Amino acid sequence: MSKSSPALECRLEAAKAVVHDAARMAMAMRPPPGGPQAQLKSAQDWLTETDGAVETFIASRMQAMFPDDGFQGEEGGMTRTGSLRWVVDPIDGTSNYARGRSRWCVSLGLLDGDEPIGGVIEAPALGEVYTALRGVGAFLNGKPIHASPIADPTRAMIEMGWSGRVPKPVFMEKMDAIMELGAMPRSGGCGALALADVASGRLDGYVEIVINLWDVAAALPLLAEAGACVSPFLRDGGLTGGATILAANPHIAPTLSRAVGIALT
């Protein structure tokens, strides 16, 4: 399809409505503050009842409206194929969600073949909705967003995501490189929102050594439309498994790329 079209715009509007309803469901099911009310899939990788319920809800609604579109979920895998494919993370930031915290979201991205073209990320506990469509722009609560203008690393705020699949020395090496730049390190436990923060200028960069397609599918169009630089996540294996991602504002991206050893091309 072209840059944008009535069909794609229709899909984005439908996705916004479906994600909003799913987010309301997740809010209603959110555990109270306290110890995690969830099951462990692996170390620090949590699964709640809400994950499955939200994914099933979104899958059913999108199939009813767009039966020819493909669908892939974090929990259910690839359930339908199509040239256009929806990719959902029903609860990104489950470790936060399971403890009654607010930094989590429902994330739904749209791919045209292997190209991310649209996305919706709603963080209902924060009252925020990010949307993007290729060639149309990136928005937070309906207002355009752009990557940060910060170029000086000593003024920068950089987040790095953690994964149990990454050896501790590798994680510490990258984090040390960020701190050696003089940047302020952060780790918020929600990759989709961290990438959205880069798109909106709240962060100057985000690094994660192993992250999955469902975590980033909705954020990739946001980053592109907001003018951020992103490493070739999909080319480097992100379509079929975990891969590395670096996203940053264009002014600091080359410096951050060299520091952490993650190429932008």
Automatic annotation (TrEMBL):
SUPFAM superfamilies noted in UniProt: Carbohydrate phosphatase (SSF56655)
GO terms for MF: inositol monophosphate 1-phosphatase activity; metal ion binding
Keywords: Hydrolase, Magnesium, Metal-binding
The keyword Disulfide bond belongs to this UniProt entry's keyword annotation: no
Binding-site residues for Mg(2+), renumbered to this chain: E74, D89, I91, D92, D215
Superkingdom, taxonomy of origin: Bacteria
Signal peptide: none
Gene Ontology BP term (one): inositol metabolic process
Keyword Hydrolase tagged: yes
One Pfam family it belongs to: Inositol_P
Cofactor: Mg(2+)
Family statement drawn from the similarity comment of this UniProt entry: Belongs to the inositol monophosphatase superfamily.
Protein name per the record: Inositol monophosphatase
